Amino acid sequence: MFRASIVTMLLLAAPAALAQSAQGDWPCVQRRIATISAGSVWSGPDLAAASADWGQDFEAASLARQLASRRTPLEEVDGLVDGFAQKAGAAKSERLLRVFAGVLELTNTERSRILAGISRYAKGQEALAERVRDESDKLSLAKDSPAAEETPQTKEIEDRLKWDTRIFQERRQSLTYVCETPVLLEKRVFEIARRIQPKL
């Protein structure tokens, strides 16, 4: 019975394995895109100059950090940007470009850390899946032998197998949420861009 559940679990993990084979150690259904390019989220003026010096504008950098933080609700973006634009006066457009350049760079930095974490997570899952298969094979051999009877060793293997299987399944479920995070970050940057552009 337990053996059958292991096989089912490993079959359910097959889509992640396919994603890994297509993109190295990438376990997500979503394609791995290393960096959010400005062109994919921004249709305003060129960001080249702003990207180079946004960190030198203290107030623009401070707002960029606030907007890039997922703790800041998107509903607050308009008010924060409007307040900044009003104080910026004639330099509003130039400084708002710096704000968005900062948001994009900070988000890409955070996203890179998340992508690296997902790859490490995938390697851990791969190692755990291999251990589950090994333990399952050992248990099957022990139980299928002519003089099969439960021993302390087989009980230990079975307990370890159940525990590792549980961890594997829980981590596989968590991976669905983790894989969404880079996509959510891209959507957030796009939404911030959409709110800043009309104010330039």
TrEMBL record:
Superkingdom assignment: Bacteria
Signal peptide positions on this chain: 1-19
Keywords: Signal
Region of interest called Disordered, as start-end residue ranges on this chain: 137-156
Protein name: Uncharacterized protein
